[in-house]
Amino acid sequence: MSVIRIQGRHGLNGEIHIQGSKNGVLPIMAGALLHRGTTVITNVPIIQDVICMMGILEYLGCRCALEGHTAVIDAIHAEAVPVPCAMSGQMRSSVMLLGPLLGRFGLAVSRHPGGCCLGNRPVNLHLDAFRALGAQVRTEGEQIGVFANHLHPATIRFPYPSVGATENAILASVSVPGATRIIGGAREPEIEMLCDFLCSMGAKITGGGTACILIEGGVPLHDTTFAIDGDRIVAGTYLGALLCSGGRVRLCGAPVFHMEESLRLAERMGMEIAVSPEGLVARMQGRARACDFSTGPYPEFPTDLQPVMMAVLASASGEGRIQETVFEKRFSCAEELRKLGASIIIENRFARVRGQRPLHGARVQAKDLRGGAALVVAGLTAEGETLVEGYEHISRGYEDISRDLAQVGAEIALRE
Q1: Active site residues
Q2: Are 380 and 241 in contact (CB under 8 A)?
Q3: Is 104 labelled as part of a ligand binding site?
Q4: Distances from the Cα of 38 to the Cαs of 34, 41, 328, in angstroms?
Q5: What is the pTM of this model?
Q6: Is position 36 annotated in a ligand binding site?
Q7: What sequence ranges are listed for the domain Enolpyruvate transferase (predicted)?
């Protein structure tokens, strides 16, 4: 089993190139199923979820190739065959296949999706969107089946801005002739990216990145080449590392115009940040200042970065209070952070973190993707050696977190 070994208390100085967006590339890869042709995707992050998605697409009959950071997906011979539980259960984004399979073939069968265990993450909003388009839904145990002889355009209203359900509604609607409107959809940058990708393929979509999206479906699609934006969560993770360690780091390719709340929180904690279209330069001197924050749907502070900022608060000056409004089990890394000496009190959807200086090294276990990244960040500021187990969770979303941090001065290495 791979373990990340960290010797803490080293400043960070240098440059990191931010990988392509995990949450952006996966629905786009699923969207390649809509076109009976070839899709080329560049700036693809080499992460386990991408490898898993490529395996599922190949099982569905696509020809896939990954050369460097470029993926080529030929979906001419794709089929709507049931995806084995062993494959779809590895990541939550496997649910994204339902929309394009339903749109293209009128049939999709999968199991309830896998991924990180963050509490109640139902797919009912996805299924309600399919029903609005005229599909029938059958669930049996862990299996989900959606099918339709004829899909029709509709107005889909979401009571909550679910990212995945919004993406699935878009993907299913692209093949449906007529105007489909999505009201109350999620506004995350990754949804805007998906709409841009589909438009590059010939689809007619307006309002991507807003709460009201219009899809003029049934338009013929064509081959396309599309570049994935930088990963705002990875960039935010490395800002968290700098808040803990101090120094000066340039993040090339950071999508700064989609990171407003993350940058604002880092500045409140004492960081100096200069942004440009190419990325950002961040400087941190002294100890981070504790402050309160709350998570929420975009454009609010992203829940995916909450564990990292909990790790920052664990060694900050003062006490900070976190309100988690998205996932009720997003505080699960607190138990492992306490092994490093963190003072964290959980009260329902609130966490109170009193900064300790210094934390101390220990052996800890990553139990999910973002919690694992938080343990790495905490290890950077701990005295002595920290060993982070459960690397298979971290590798789902980070190409090589130890490589990136080592090249800016952290004493960190992946040990097989």
Answers
A1: 116
A2: yes
A3: no
A4: 10, 10, 40
A5: 0.96
A6: no
A7: 7-404
Question: Helices in 44-154 by DSSP H: which ranges?
Answer: 48-59, 85-88, 98-105, 124-132
Q: How far apart are CA 90 and CA 114, in angstroms?
A: 5
Round to whole Å and give the CA distance between 155 and 183: 7
Better pLDDT: 141 or 311: 311
User: Which residue type does 324 have?
Assistant: E
How large a percentage of the chain has pLDDT more than 70?
97
First to last CA, the chain: 6
DSSP one-letter string for 233-272: HHHHHHHHHHHHH-EEEEEET--GGG-HHHHHHHHHTT-E
pLDDT reported for residue 121: 52
22 known ligand binder: yes
Q: Is the pLDDT of residue 90 over 80?
A: no
- Whether 34 and 174 have beta carbons less than 8 Å apart is answered as yes
Nearest to 108 by CA among 68, 155, 147: 147
Is residue 116 pLDDT above 60, yes or no?
no
SS3 for 12? Answer: strand
Nearest to residue 295, comparing CAs of 260, 267, 325? Answer: 325
- If we measure between CA atoms, which residue out of 100, 122, 2 comes closest to residue 56? 100
- Phi first, then psi, for residue 231 (nearest 5°) are -85, 110
Residue 285 to residue 135: CA distance in whole angstroms: 56
Which residues, including other chains, have CB under 8 Å from residue 124's CB and lie 6 or more apart? Answer: none
Residue 329 annotated in ligand binding: no
- Residue where the block lists tokens 């699923």: 30
